[in-house]
Design goal:
- It is a single chain.
- By secondary structure, the protein is mainly alpha-helical.
- The protein has one domain: ABC transporter involved in vitamin B12 uptake, BtuC, CATH 1.10.3470.10.
- The chain is 73% helix and 0% strand.
- It contains 15 helices and no strands.
- The protein has helices at residues 3-13, 17-21, 26-43, 56-89, 101-115, 121-145, 153-175, 179-186, 203-213, 215-221, 225-230, 235-256, 263-275, 279-303, 312-334.
- Helix 5 packs parallel to helix 7 (153-175).
- The longest helix is centred in the N-terminal third of the chain and has 34 residues, at 56-89.
Length: 335
């Protein structure tokens, strides 16, 4: 057989990883275009008639533009947090909702309200970030201490820890008569978003840049402590860094928007099914799909019973629960 034919056969038999991990592909550009279209639809969706009222354009820039920007930033933040957590724990069923991280953020917010009668947004963010970091580290330490036979037990443990923290928050709220603040936080909604109340979400861009910088090390950390150490990566340090970035993103979202369940579970799993576990190449996809998912849910929440509005957490929780069950059944079928 001629040599050139042999070389051609060998090349065709090798997996084409370059095209698979390439970011700027036609599907990715199409996904960006779809998200832009969804953003335009979001800008012109709402009960207030911005075209027929005299102050329509003022309301457009006061409420509609900030809301759409908050949707995009929040979708990227929660999806990235889920992706990083799944890499660190080596478990696809892990995200801020299933690890108790979001409940710890709520407890931090509640304690800030108790210590400071009228806390600023910066104080609320600080409390949420610190407590989400502590809660996530407790969850990770618990996983390292306990040997689990099934990956399905991991999210169950996280939900149990989250339920305990939620019960503590409810008790403290009843004692200090702060239950209204807890109820407002548990109902994640973009209705209160306006100029002056969402700007801290722009820090998410910095978090995205940092995650992209350390993407390779986080991917190696996802292979386990032994492999990471053999490859020259300080496992504990990179896990601490990843936890800090997750806590920062979740804390900002919790303080500004509230509880957004299952967003970090849906998007990373869909991306990983088709693209594998390379964080650097998956991160843009996760951000874009996260933006699109939460924007679709928010548009539905604004139109399903117009002129009233359903909290977006209700739509996300319903869709996320269905996807969570599908993932569980898929893992069982593969086994």
């Amino acid at each position: 057989m001629p040599k050139n034919i042999i070389v051609g056969v060998e090349n065709n038999s090798q997996p084409q990883l370059y095209n698979h991990n390439k970011i700027w592909t036609k599907p990715f550009i199409l996904a960006i275009i779809v998200v832009i279209i969804l953003g335009i639809i979001s800008l012109f969706t709402g009960a207030y008639d911005i075209k027929g009222q005299e102050d329509g354009m003022d309301m457009f820039f006061i409420t509609r533009v900030p809301r759409t920007a908050a949707l995009m930033l929040t979708g990227a933040a929660m999806s990235m947090a889920g992706l990083v957590m799944q890499l660190i724990t080596q478990n696809r069923l892990v995200e801020p909702t299933t690890t108790g991280t979001i409940e710890w953020s709520g407890l931090g917010l509640l304690l800030v309200y108790i210590l400071f009668p009228a806390p600023s947004l910066v104080l609320r963010m600080t409390g949420a970030i610190l407590f989400s970091f502590v809660g996530t580290m407790i969850f990770f330490l618990f996983l390292r201490r306990v040997r689990l036979r099934s990956s399905l037990i991991v999210p169950i443990i996280g939900m149990m820890l989250g339920a305990i923290i939620s019960a503590v928050s409810t008790f403290v709220g009843l004692v200090f008569k702060m239950t209204q603040n807890i109820e407002t936080w548990f109902v994640g909604s973009f209705a209160p978003v306006q100029v002056g109340r969402y700007e801290y979400l722009w820090f998410i861009i910095i978090i995205t840049f940092l995650i992209f910088m350390f993407a390779d090390r986080l991917t190696i950390a996802g292979l386990g402590e032994d492999v990471s150490t053999s490859l020259g990566v300080n496992y504990n340090r990179i896990v601490l860094l990843g936890t800090g970035l997750i806590s920062f993103a979740v804390g900002i979202v919790a303080a500004v928007i509230g509880n957004l369940p299952f967003l970090g579970l849906i998007v990373p799993n869909i991306v990983s099914m088709y693209r594998g576990d390379d964080l650097r190449s998956n991160l843009p996809w996760v951000c874009v799909l996260g933006m699109g998912t939460i924007t679709v849910c928010d548009i539905i929440s604004r139109t399903i019973i117009m002129p009233f509005e359903v909290p977006v957490s209700l739509i996300l929780g319903t869709v996320g629960a269905v996807v969570f069950i599908v993932i569980l059944l898929r893992q069982r079928r593969l086994r």
